[in-house]
């Protein structure tokens, strides 16, 4: 009987649609006498609740991907709950030589449960989102571990008490690779990967991601503070490739971005970092507002991403359109800030004018970054046309052990400026802000949002509803 080892990192349930799911995990690196890494493979199996496990599937745990791999479960049923098991083992065989008919010992493997997406476009979707989870690491030591993980413990307790969640969205700064900026900042791939392993292996976040489909996008601290504002040519040639490789391994690999064939093998490498997916009454577009920035051109996203975002907005699905952006779309800060959408007014105007021209309803922005949580409504109605608005929900931080921003530091009344008009768009509603560690739970129906903000230890601090 072949013993299956427990995962070194994961499992992380990534993208799950109506008929397939991606689950990420990692093995332990071991070096052979000749200096080559020992060959490792992942193994996973799945079953419907109350049913029998299917034949296991195998996948490589590649040293090129920090000994991680991805199980791709296919031919699933929509709106169905599944149990899965996942682990890894060493073998000198090739992938196509491994046999599900061998005897496998699953006692030490990891397990989880998730639900596939629904095809019902009127179905309510519940998700939790947030950003900025700090885990200080200096000189080989860690601090604040238990405090940071309590945010995710609170989410788990809500689930144990009956809260139904379809998705977890993490909208930036999943790691802080630039601790105290120049002191102890990561600079090579191994350091960045180690940061992810430490952040994602904390017990409560690990349990949460093993059971809820999780979607991520990066912000600056996955690379360095305010990237690329202060980056040198050397940073672009050295630090950035290492940081982005670690991001591809630990955040992007389990997203819906990379296509795969009917054997569950990837058939392309990433050439962009934005993507979209759907579930129930919701369409999601996860932007990349960090790596495509061009301050000289006044762009926070590139031309291709803009074109795809505008086409996605106007695809006629009739669903609630949720746009995840690491930095807030609005409200703006009172003090000028060239890191947010307010510094790229031409592109912000382009998106708003597209929504106006095509009268696209039910548009909601989800963001983090600013270490203060609130929701806001913007009136973008055009004279002589029916009323039209967009919403912004900001959720930050999961954990930040230093002072947080305050609501009073934002423009929460009056107008949001366009490039040509300081009074272009009227702010019609802003909720109270919360300046503390938190997460936001959102319930979405085709006609309404319910937004609940919870403090790190689980106490409700804000409850708001918005009609769509």
Provide an overview of this structure:
This protein is α+β, with helices and mostly antiparallel strands. Helix content is 17%, strand content 29%. Strands 15-16-17-18-20-19-22-21 form an eight-stranded mixed β-sheet, covered by helices on one side. Strands 14-13-10-23-24-25 form a six-stranded mixed β-sheet, with no helix packed on it. Helix 1 packs across helix 3 and helix 2 (189-200) runs parallel beside helix 5. The mean pLDDT is 94.
Bin the helical content: 10-25%
Output mean pLDDT: 94
Number of helices: 7
Which strand-content bin applies to the residues? 25-35%
Q: What is the approximate shape? A: globular
Radius of gyration: 22 Å
Distance between the termini: 57 Å
Number of strands: 25
Largest sheet: 8 strands, mixed
Structural class: alpha+beta
Q: Strands of the biggest beta sheet: in what spatial order?
A: 15-16-17-18-20-19-22-21
> What ranges have pLDDT less than 50 throughout 5 or more consecutive residues?
none
């Amino acid at each position: 009987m072949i013993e299956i080892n427990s995962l070194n990192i994961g499992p992380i349930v990534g993208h799950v649609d109506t008929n397939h799911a991606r689950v990420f995990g990692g093995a332990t690196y071991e070096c052979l006498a000749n200096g080559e890494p020992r060959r490792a493979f992942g193994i996973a199996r799945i079953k419907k609740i109350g049913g029998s496990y299917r034949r296991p599937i195998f996948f490589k745990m590649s040293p090129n991907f920090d000994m991680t791999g991805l199980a791709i479960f296919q031919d699933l049923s929509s709106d169905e709950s599944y149990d899965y098991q996942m682990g890894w083992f060493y073998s000198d065989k090739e992938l196509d030589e491994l046999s599900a008919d061998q005897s496998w010992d699953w006692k030490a493997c990891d397990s989880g449960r998730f639900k596939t997406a629904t095809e019902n476009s009127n179905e309510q979707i519940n998700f939790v989102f947030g950003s900025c989870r700090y885990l200080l690491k200096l000189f080989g030591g860690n601090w604040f571990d238990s405090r940071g993980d309590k945010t995710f413990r609170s989410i788990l307790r809500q689930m144990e008490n009956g809260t139904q969640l379809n998705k977890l969205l993490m909208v930036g700064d999943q790691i802080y690779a630039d601790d105290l900026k120049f002191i102890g900042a990561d600079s090579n791939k191994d350091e960045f990967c180690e940061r992810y392993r430490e952040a994602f292996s904390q017990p409560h976040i690990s349990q949460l991601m093993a059971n809820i489909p999780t979607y991520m996008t990066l912000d600056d601290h996955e690379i360095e503070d305010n990237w690329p504002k202060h980056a040198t040519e050397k940073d672009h040639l050295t630090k950035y490739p290492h940081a982005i490789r670690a991001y591809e391994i630990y955040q992007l690999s389990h997203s819906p971005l990379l296509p795969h064939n009917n054997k569950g093998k990837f058939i392309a490498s990433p050439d962009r970092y934005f993507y979209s997916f759907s579930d129930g009454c919701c369409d999601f577009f996860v932007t990349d507002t960090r790596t495509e920035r061009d301050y000289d051109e006044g762009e926070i996203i590139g031309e291709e991403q803009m074109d795809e975002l505008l086409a996605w907005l106007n695809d006629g699905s009739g669903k609630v359109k949720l746009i995840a952006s690491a930095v807030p779309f609005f409200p703006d800060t009172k003090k000028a800030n060239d890191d947010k959408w307010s510094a790229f007014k031409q592109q912000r105007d382009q998106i708003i004018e597209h929504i106006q021209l095509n009268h696209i309803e039910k548009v909601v922005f989800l963001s983090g970054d600013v270490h203060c949580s609130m929701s806001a409504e913007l009136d973008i109605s055009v004279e002589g046309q029916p009323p039209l608005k967009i919403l912004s929900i900001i959720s930050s931080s999961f954990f930040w052990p230093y002072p947080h921003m305050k609501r009073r530091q934002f423009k929460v009344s009056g107008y949001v400026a366009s490039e040509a008009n300081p009074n272009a768009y009227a702010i019609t509603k802003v909720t109270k802000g919360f300046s503390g560690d938190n997460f936001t739970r959102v319930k979405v129906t085709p006609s309404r949002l319910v937004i609940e903000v919870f403090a790190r230890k689980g106490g409700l601090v804000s409850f708001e509803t918005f009609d769509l």
